[in-house]
Amino acid sequence: MYTNVSSSVLLSLAPLGISDANIYPAFLFGTITYLLIMFFNLLVLAAIVVSKKLHKPMFILLFNLPINDMMGATAFFPHLVYSVVTQDRLISQPACITQAFLIHFYGTGNCLILSSMAYDRYVAICCPLRYNAVMTPQNLIKIIASIWVITFSIIVTLILLLARFRMCRTHVVDLFCNNPSLLKLVCDDITMNNYYGLATMCLVQGGALAIIIYTYLQILRTCVMTNHPDARRKALQTCGSHLVVFLLLQFNTVITLIAHRIESASPYMRRVLGVSVVIFPPFFDPIIYGLKITELKQGIKGFLKRGVVSMKG
């Protein structure tokens, strides 16, 4: 018989498996990684804000990505580095549910933001004469508002469906709190939660994948048909970086969610892939976009030069 622990303050996360000799190197590595993520993403945000050349629909949509990435990293890293240095894997139930909310909000938000960016590139490359008519400031506001409202609605519903249960276990099977691992602490019927989780996964992941496939096939067709090598190179370069970011997030997220539903799946593989979802995209997104998109790279250089000049002055 399980003991009802819904009133228990603390839950225990999966152990990190770090030896005493590696505690401080791991703490230092985690702290530096988090600080670099915040720095790189803030740099992209600052460059877009400061440079008037980047006040275009493509970069305004991109502006949402660093914000979302920083939220995902902040939901994960502070508690992780605290756990590393204290070797304390306990977390309060409200804090665990909050972390799960932020992690899922980050993942869903990323998919929708990347999908909207793919649509923007599709219109710009395949329908250039209609671009200014389609990507108007009003439509841009509607797209951005829809991203955050849809993400918030989906994840709030997900967490409310979880919060209605009384938990009867305390051991979280993952290195951070998420909906699948928290559902494993429940002893009641979670059929509705499973159906909702599958439906949202198909809607968000499947919908984003469908948009990416369609838009990129159209972009590829247009690039092959164009007679301007420079335009073709620029289009493929921009879209190539976008595709790398999207596939990295999609692959790891889908495999992690599926692994939770397969009893024979390796917990170590699931944990590694799950952690990679909240580490690699926030770390590499600003680097990939900053290096591959010429206008953004120039904007970042201009912002840094301006900062150096102001410091000297």
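Above is the first protein from milestone M3; the second protein from the same milestone is given next.
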Amino acid sequence: MANKVRVQEILLKALENLNADELKRFQWHLVQGVLDGLPPMAKAKVEGVSLDETISQLMQFYDDKPAVTVTATALRRMNQNQLARKLDEALLTEFVQGHLEGNTGKDLIPNA
């Protein structure tokens, strides 16, 4: 399994190009709830905080795989398909690298 810090780095890299309004919209999605079966995040945890802090809160609230899935789903709902693809590609790279090192990373790839 990729470590939590590496997952945070992947999420940060995928989301770093969001402008302030897009970050607010991403945070709104987190508060509204993104996936059935997973609770929405508390508004106080993400409202008005930086991208770094949003990712930290996301990782604390969800485990690695749900955090990645929630992020990708929220991006797609925002029509940020290029960023969602960037996230998918980074995860695939991590999966391949982990596989070569004996760690499949399968727990991070949605639906794997």
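Note on the second protein: The domain at 4-100 is CATH 1.10.533.10 (Death Domain, Fas).
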